[in-house]
Amino acid sequence: MTSITTDSPAPAIAYRSLVTRRIFILGLLVGLLVLSIAVDVSLGPARYSVADVLRTLFAPADADVQMRVVVWDIRMPMAMLAVTVGASLSLAGAQMQTILANPLASPFTLGLSAAASFGAALAMVLGVALFPAAISLMVPINAFLMAMAAALLIFGLSTLRGVTVETIILLGIALVFSFNAALALLQYFASEQALSAVVFWTMGSLTKATWGKVAVTAVILVLCVPLFARRAWALTAIRLGEARAAAMGVPVRRLRLEALFLVSLLAAVPVSFVGTIGFIGIVGPHVARLLLGEDQRFFLPGAMLAGALILSATSVLSKALLPGAVLPIGIITALVGVPFFAALILTKGRKAW
Amino acid sequence: MFFRFTLGATILCLFSASAFAAPITVTDIAGREVTVEAPVNRVILGEGRQIFFAVVLDGENPFERVVGWRDDFREAAPESYEAYAEKFPQISEIPTFGGFKDGTFDIEQAVSLSPDVMIMNLEAKAATDEAGYEEKLAKVGIPIVYVDFREQPFEHTAQSMAIIGKLFGEEDRAADFNAFYQEQLTRITDVIEAQSDLERPLVFVERAGGYSEDCCMSFGNGNFGRMVELAGGKNMAAPFIPGTFGTVNAEQVIASNPDQIIVTGGNWEAYVPGGAWVGVGPGSDEAQARAKLEALMKRPAFTGVTAVETNEVHAIWHQFYNSPYSFVAVQRLATWLHPDLFADLDAEETLKELHERFLPVDYRPGYWVSLK
User: What is the 3-state secondary structure (H, E, C) of B177-207?
Assistant: First the structure.
């Protein structure tokens, strides 16, 4: 009896210290991300000093033309696109895992990236524009339209009666295989020039970065995040199991459809700009979950920060590994990220999922 | 097995038209000794673009011997295909086989065309061996001969040409071409080698500039990278690209500050409609090509670069890399890089002479353009 009364303030204290710890971890992630962006912007074959880069950043008008172009038109868009794309893909993966209750789910499990690759290849191999009005943006628009078509197909099928979470995932896998086969067919008939363009595209690369693309991805993030944040507790509840969430008054079905739509948008746009960078969508959320747990108030920003940090650090690494050349970033994300991820899962005592 | 072989051989003998055919042995580029009944009358080309060499030997009717080819000529070099199709309409009826990849063909179809020989590219050997095609074809008496105009063009072109000349029974014609080829190539290499203190300008070759949104696809030591070195330049991308193909960081162009920029181009309307590529090639629109080349130089990677400031910016036909005319590209590059050393050399004259003496189609200008 006495022991219980003396212990009664403990859960509150424990909760408060847990929250403090999580806020601290989020702060740490922000700090690391800022550091990574700084290194990304100051690193490059043109070997400018950090002081020069800083001066160009804060007073671009005074800098010499070449330096301004390098910092503002080449390095900054790439560094920023790494952040927005990393955050978008990771957020998309996080919510996909949440609503589908599956640790393997990511936008790519549902065939979105396969569909985008197919759309892009359609443009690069056959010169087919799905939206002929903007021919200069043929590749990204094709990729986006295909990815959204795949997403809407899944979306439409999941509104049917009797469609469970497992069915959605299986349908997604069916889409992955169909689009991969269609892509392989296109590659088989492609000329050498077109083939190498397709292969390079599917490896993912930040070299196509422009300020316009940074803006588009940022706007989509800014629109999606509040919508997810408003549903934060409901999404947390869904992780306890569909039945329990429903008992708590969460409209599980509607929530899942809404999230599915937002996730499609979050994944399709970055993929159409940078190509396939599949790893972030799975690993970003898992890193956040291991560090911060399931509570969406922390999990949501954590997943975005983790994704952005991974992609930004990868961008730094790709410059350091092969200075002067461009190593497709999709290759490095997986090669470097996987050992780190495995170490994190294996050393962490508690269950990863 | 022996029975099948003799049966196949007998059938082939019955169908082989020439009564003069006698077995000869050639050593191909892969170092294999192959016995072929020559001169051959029915040939399968393992790559459609091998026709570039076949036409040199069979000026009158270059497609008479060709009973089948891989369907890549039309795709990869549309302007050349059209020029040939205009003069020899029958080329659209030559059976094509397989996909566009090396070494992927339907062996049954190949056998049914009953060729005297199959001429394959060296780079297809791995795939062909993998599938065991060589043994299977040998059983029905169809030999494979490997040639190479692509992997090591400047080492293997003359040798490959001599081999095909032997097979076709046109050895004199092959020797004529080889003499011309050597003569034209040494006009550059001899001069470059003779310079004791040659200043090699730094050259950035942008592969298929404007083909995709990304900047700065380039070449390592092979291909156009090699041609730049032969022409007395220094290939800017060589230290950064380990293989033949790769992409350099846009910023590297600014950092390296090349003296000359060469963009490879071609008519890629079929793949990138309305794209930013420079459409040089036979019969191209020069004014349009120049305008597109100028537009490409406005991208961030070329800001304030010496080559752009001094207008040392050129575009050249991308297909030079896999055609027998690559020595002409070397000449053109050399005259851009060292105008003083090669003041008396006109690459266009060489290209014209090549057409007049060896090719069945007429010369049409437009293979290059320069901002100089």
Answer: HHHHHHHHHHHHHHHHHHCCCCCCCEEEEEC
Q: Check CB contact of B202 with chain A, cutoff 8 Å.
A: no
Q: Tell me which H or E stretch contains A273.
A: helix A252-274
How far apart, in whole angstroms, are the C-alpha atoms of residue A281 and residue B71? Answer: 40
Question: Is A323 in Cβ contact with B274 (below 8 Å)?
Answer: no
Touching check for A139 and chain B: CB below 8 Å?
A: yes
Q: Closest-CA residue in chain A for B272? A: A127
Rounded mean pLDDT of chain B? Answer: 88
In this predicted structure, what is the pLDDT of residue A1? 43
Q: A223 CB near a chain B CB, below 8 Å?
A: no
CB of B304 within 8 Å of any CB in chain A? yes
Residue in the block written with tokens 């461009």: A326
* Residue where the block lists tokens 């003499």: B179
Q: Tell me whether residues A200 and B247 touch, CB distance under 8 A.
A: yes
- C-beta atoms of B100 and A129 within 8 A: no
- CA of A39, closest CA in chain B: separation in Å? 16
Inform me whether the C-beta atom of residue A190 falls under 8 Å from chain B C-beta atoms: yes
Residues in B touching A124 (Cβ below 8 Å): 212, 271-272
Chain B interface disruption, residue of A65, A71, A191, A329, most B CBs within 10 A: A191
Its ipTM equals: 0.82
Least confident span in A319-333, B254-268, B301-315: A319-333
Record: contact A191-B99, CB cut-off 8 A: no
Tell me which chain B residue has its CA closest to the CA of residue A323: B240
The pLDDT tens digits of the residues spanning B244-267 come to 888 999 999 999 999 999 999 998
Distance of alpha carbon B38 from alpha carbon B21, whole angstroms: 5
Give the nearest partner residue to B76 out of A44, A45, A192, using CB atoms: A192
Helix H, strand E, coil C: the string for chain B is: CHHHHHHHHHHHHHHCCCCCCEEEEEECCCCCEEEEEECCCCEEECCHHHHHHHHHHCCCCCCCCEEEEECCHHHHCHHHHHHHHHHCHHHHHCCEECCCCCCCCCHHHHHHCCCCEEEEEHHHHHHHHHCCHHHHHHHCCCCEEEECCCCCHHHHHHHHHHHHHHHHCCHHHHHHHHHHHHHHHHHHHHHHHHCCCCCCCEEEEECCCCCCCCCCEEECCCHHHHHHHHCCCEECCCCCCCCCEEEECHHHHHHHCCCEEEEEECCCCCCCCCCCCCCCCCCCCHHHHHHHHHHHCCCHHHCCCHHHHCCCEEEEEHHHHHCCCHHHHHHHHHHHHCCCCCCCCCHHHHHHHHHHHHCCCCCCCCCEEECC
Q: With pLDDT > 70 as the criterion, what percentage of chain A qualifies?
A: 96
Distance from CA of B271 to the nearest CA of A (A): 4
